[in-house]
Amino acid sequence: MSAEAIIACMGVYVYYGQEEILRDVTFEVKRGAFFPLVGPNGAGKSTLLKVLLGLVRCAQGRINTPFDRHPPGYVPQQASIDPMYPVTLRDIVAMGLYPRTGWWRRRVSEARRSMAEAINRVGLSGHESKSFLELSGGMRQKTLIARALVNGPDVLVLDEPTAGLDEESQREVLTHLMRLKEEHGTTVLMAHHGEYLLNGLAEEVCEIQHGRVLLRKPSDV
Amino acid sequence: MFDGLVRAWNLFPNALAAALLIAVVCSALGVFVLLKRVVFIGITLSEIAALGIALSMAFELPPILGAGILTLASVTMLAAPLESVRLPKDAVMGTVFVLASGLAILVVARSGFGLHEVKTLLYGDIILTSPADLAVMAAVLLPVFAAFLLFLRPILYCSLDRDAARVMGMRVMFWELVYFYCLGLAVSSASKTAGGLLVFCYLVVPPAAGLLLMKRLIPLMLVSTGLAVVATILGITWSLNHDLPANQTIAVAACVLLVGAFLLRAGKHRLIRRRNDVQEH
Predict the structure, then answer these.
(1) CB contact (8 A) between residue B163 and residue A50
(2) Who contacts B225 (Cβ-Cβ below 8 Å, separation ≥6)?
(3) Residue A67 C-alpha from the chain's centroid
(4) In degrees to the nearest 10, what's the CA dihedral of B77, B80, B83, B87?
(5) A96 reaches B (C-beta below 8 A)
(6) What is the rounded distance in angstroms from the CA atom of residue A211 to the CA atom of residue A60?
(7) Per-residue pLDDT tens for A126-163?
(8) For residue A64, which of A8, A12, B72, B206 is within the disulfide window of CB 3.0 to 4.6 Å?
(9) In Å, what is the CA distance from B277 to each residue of A127, A134, B78, B266, B281?
(10) A13 and A20 in contact (C-beta within 8 Å)?
(11) Interface touch A99/B169, C-beta < 8 Å
(12) Residues of chain B found within 8 Å of residue A141, distances taken between Cβ atoms
């Protein structure tokens, strides 16, 4: 693992039952990079993110991340939250404070300030009391990004944050992520279905095809 | 209603106190039964508790002991992730339900219990609550309710977004078990007096009405417990006035309140739509 890398994945293999999902995956993510994982549906993008996050075990290989000591900000696919839950935007963002507060501590004024700041950073101030069900697709995505940001993580891991959004909302979400990377030096690791919106944003894309990865410049697309 | 409440209190203070206690605890816990979409667990746990009570009586042990042990063991099994064995949780719960119901009847059939004991054992009768029953129930339900409220945040977060909770370092399996143990203890201690039907009703019907009316968790839990209390008072009052079985009358009253909540929501939505139409024109 090189000195400037924050995440390293070396010779990783993942199986679901007998099926091979990832084969000999090796790459590094540099600190402060914007690192998109691209590929068709079912290529293994989400699985790779889950392996890095420790949610899925790899059968073989080594993974180095700082996530044990510094939990990353994680933005799952929107569908991971059941809209039937009676929660507001504020409740969801407050969930991100859990590593800081635990179950026993009340939210102190500092935590409240962090929440207001995270909500403001994604442009959702004034919508705090809206229920998750009432929010549009783009607003739901931004809510999940605010939850991931509330603890000021070094790394942000996003699983298809633009899925199901119209092109304008997709651009808006990507622009937000770029701003985060530039203003706060946050490393952004993101699974992304399409590629054309990434031109000019990332130095490098990691393409996954049939469980194998290929690193290349986005201009090659 | 108030006169009926006073009369019920004068005639059956233990029954009323027990019913209100079960109503509050089970309808609050039931909110997560609906949110986690595991409604079937309510009736399954009730049947397991009935089996535990039957076994305890057959072996002359305290009923709460058998009900508690069996329910907690089942809850531990049901809370385990079963995706790896490609078996839907509902299928497991269904099988456990059938097994527990069948075994409860078999145990009872082989015992020397009379018909009245068997009916009370399997269906419960809140009116027959003794001071000892109430004391045991309070000793279990009050700490369970306190633990549930104390750990509400991690229980909510682990249920709302399992993966994100794990990434944040939360022990998802532990908090899931905390919730299911609370549920198991509540159902096992309430089942002997309230019976499977009433416990299941409290776990499902008032929370469903609350879900129709409220958009936030705490107000939803308050409405759910409030409606369960109202259904209990109405049910006991009606059952006294018309000489009806109390458990079933409370269950029907809860369903009537659910229909009322549905109509209230439908009326509110129609009003909002009409107001929006007027504004557009």
Answers:
(1) yes
(2) B23, B24, B27, B28, B206
(3) 13
(4) 10
(5) yes
(6) 14
(7) 999 999 888 888 888 889 989 998 888 889 999 988 87
(8) A8
(9) 24, 19, 49, 16, 6
(10) yes
(11) yes
(12) none
Judge residue B131's burial from the number of C-beta atoms within 10 Å of its C-beta, 0-12 exposed, 13-18 middle, 19 or more buried. Answer: exposed
Beta strands in chain B (DSSP E): none
Partners of B47 in the beta sheet? none
Beta strands in B7-130 (DSSP E): none
Instruction: Note whether A81 and A139 are within 8 A (CB).
Output: no
Q: In what order do the strands lie in the sheet with A212-216?
A: A73-75, A155-159, A187-192, A34-38, A205-209, A212-216
CA atoms of B117 and B113, how far apart (whole Å): 6
| DSSP character at residue B111 | S
Provide, rounded to the nearest whole percent, the portion of chain B with pLDDT above 70: 95
Name which of A97, A103, A151 to mutate to probe chain B: the one with the most chain B Cβ atoms within 10 A of its Cβ: A103
Name the residue of chain A whose CA is nearest to B33's CA. Answer: A85
Burial A154-173 (b: 16+ CB within 10 A, else e): bbbbbbbbbbebeeebbebb
Sheet of A5-16, strands arranged across: A19-30, A5-16, A60-64
The residue-averaged pLDDT of B24-41 equals 94
DSSP lists the bridge partners of residue A42 as none
* Longest Cα–Cα distance in chain A: 52
- A215, HSE (Cβ side, Cα atoms, 13 Å): 10
CA B169 – CA A81 distance, rounded (Å): 18
| Mode of pairing for the β-strands spanning A19-30 and A187-192 | unpaired
Residue of A46, A95, A133, A145 to mutate when probing chain B, most B C-beta within 10 A: A95
Q: Of A35, A5, A36, A9, nearest to A22 (Cα)? A: A9
Asked if B174 contacts A95 with a C-beta cutoff of 8 angstroms, the reply is: no
List the structure tokens of B278: 């007027």
The model's pTM = 0.87
pLDDT, chain B, mean? 88
The DSSP letter of residue A206 is E
Contacts of B116 (CB under 8 A, 6+ apart): none
Quote the CA–CA distance of B221 and B225 in Å, as a whole number. 6
Q: Contact at 8 Å (CB) between A33 and A87?
A: no
pLDDT at B42: 84
For residue B63, give both structure tokens: 């009923």
Q: How far apart are the first and last CA of chain A?
A: 27
